Every structure is written in structure tokens, then in C-alpha cells.
Amino acid sequence: MPKPSQRVKPHTQPPLELAGSNYIYTLAVVSIIYVRFTALILIFRQPMGRRITPLDGFIIRAFIQLGFSAVIGSLLPPQLALFGFRPTEIWQVSSGIIVVILGISVVRFPSRRHAASPIAIPPPTCGLLAVLRVMTLALLSNIVGPQGEIGVGIYSLGVIGILLAALCFYCSP
User: Fold this and answer.
1) Phi-psi category of 148—alpha, beta or left, where left has phi over 0 and alpha has psi -120 to 50?
2) pLDDT in tens, the chain (173 residues)
3) Phi and psi (nearest 5°) for 74?
4) CA distances, 168 to each of 67, 161, 171 (Å)
5) What is the pLDDT of residue 6?
6) Are 111 and 170 in contact (CB under 8 A)?
7) Exposed, middle or buried: residue 24 (CB in 10 Å: 0-12, 13-18, 19+)?
8) In this structure, what DSSP letter does residue 146 have?
């Protein structure tokens, strides 16, 4: 029987660095900062003596939901890489998960907004929904469309689009 030092050790390779991972990690950090900023808005509104209306609560939840969607979207590809998925599979699976999250959000948005306030959805908010729909379609194309190096670009565009939509939502009157 060979001594422990003579035993052949299986060759293990660390997972390859995923293309665009530095950018994806940066998106995760920006998304987390965004969620914290949104939470601070909620905290500072209460001591000012202003009661939070159902519409305020809806808006704050919508901001936080968009932020966490971007966080999940940013952390999902590296996590899948740790499980040994191939790059093409990583972008397809990640895109699919974010498509489901965004799809549910976009479909439910009008009814949730109406429940919070019967006032018609303002045009800038409709623009927000349009941006989210475009990002959902871009990510959907990443699942079924051409694969390769462009997958990371389409995926990161979809995730940054979530934050862009949140910015539009924040800047709307």
C-alpha cells in the first residue's frame, strides 16, 4: 500500500473565471447600495411626521424589489459557475430566472399599483414598465437566441436595465 504522500491526488481545477464577472460583481455592489438607499428613504420619512400612505408603501416595496432583483441577477452567474455550469448555460439559466422574476413583477405591477391608489398610472411610470418589458425581452432572447460571448453582454444589459428602470421610477414626479 502506498504511503499517504505517494498517493495520487485527483487533479482538481478551480472554476474558470467567468467572462464579465468583475462587471457583474460591480453591479451587485451598486444594487446593494441602491437597496440600502431605498431603505434609508423609508426610515427618514417616518420621523418627519409624515404618515406613509399605501401608495408610498407600494413605491418603496417596488424600489426594494427592483434592487433585490438586480442583486440576485448579479450574484446568480458566479454561483452557477461554482456549480460547474458552462458559460452558455450560466447565461441561459440566469436569464431564465431573471425573466421569471421580472415577468411576474411587470404583470402584477398595474394591479398592485391600483390596489395602492386608484389614480391612473402616470406616464413616467408607464415608461418604467416599458423599460422593464424591453429588459425582459432582451433576457428572453438570451435564453433562446444566439449564444457565445454576446450572452454576458445581453445579460449584464438586462440587469443594468433593472437599475435604469428604478432610476426612471425614482426620478418620475
Assistant:
1) left
2) 555 555 444 445 555 566 667 777 777 788 777 777 777 766 676 666 667 788 888 888 888 888 888 888 888 988 888 888 888 888 899 999 999 999 999 999 999 999 999 999 888 888 888 888 988 998 998 888 766 678 888 888 888 888 888 777 776 65
3) -80, -35
4) 13, 10, 5
5) 53
6) no
7) buried
8) -
**How do the domains of the chain map onto residue ranges?**
21-171
Q: Which DSSP symbol is given to 94?
A: H
DSSP characters for the chain? Answer: ---GGGSPPP---PPPPPTTHHHHHHHHHHHHHHHHHHHHHHHHHTTTTPPPPHHHHHHHHHHHHHHHHHHHHHHHHHHHHHTT--HHHHHHHHHHHHHHHHHHHHHHHHHHHHHH--SPPPHHHHHHHHHHHHHHHHHHHHHHS--STHHHHHHHHHHHHHHHHHHHHHH--
pLDDT reported for residue 62 = 85
Cell output for 71: 442583486
DSSP 8-state class, residue 6:
G
- pTM of structure: 0.77
Give the span between the Cα atoms of 27 and 31, in whole angstroms: 6
CA 76, 148, 96, 125 dihedral sign is positive
Contact 140, 62 (CB under 8 A): no
